[in-house]
Amino acid sequence: MTERRLLLLNGPNLNLLGSRQPEIYGSTTLAQIEKSTRSVAAEFGFDLRAVQSNHEGDLIDAIHLAREDCVGIIVNPAAYSHTSVAIPDALAGVELPVVEVHLSNVARREAFRHHSYVSAVADAVIAGAGPLGYEFAVRYLADRIGS
Ligand code: DQA
User: Fold this and answer.
1) Sign of torsion, CA 66 86 25 128?
2) So where's the catalytic machinery, residue-wise (predicted)?
């Protein structure tokens, strides 16, 4: 593979970042997160495909596509973390390194957010670091994948 590409996948309601419950999720927009993540990825020689969807099936399709042309996945499955079996099944099926990111510290929030089905198939989980979590995810994948 000549091109090294990461998939940055954001789930439902994350398109509203910036105005959605800023006391929990901060004021950074998804566009800003995608831009900063892309720029850190570029430092390590990675191209970045950023996808956000409010639909579970679209997220699964993006994961399947990553098998063709990506070397790692950064995913914030948002509320689907706590409900979806199909998303972790898809992630397990593509056999790429996966980092699960949550902007908020889900362990400190409501009990229903304490369990993520995705964590069982993630290589690393980052929660509570805000938008920086996505940057940490790139750094982890760069170290994991190597040059
Ligand atoms: C979230 C945490 C989830 O519980 C929630 O449903 C989200 C965002 C986070 O980034 O902190 O939508 O994944």
Assistant:
1) negative
2) 25 (proton acceptor), 102 (proton donor)
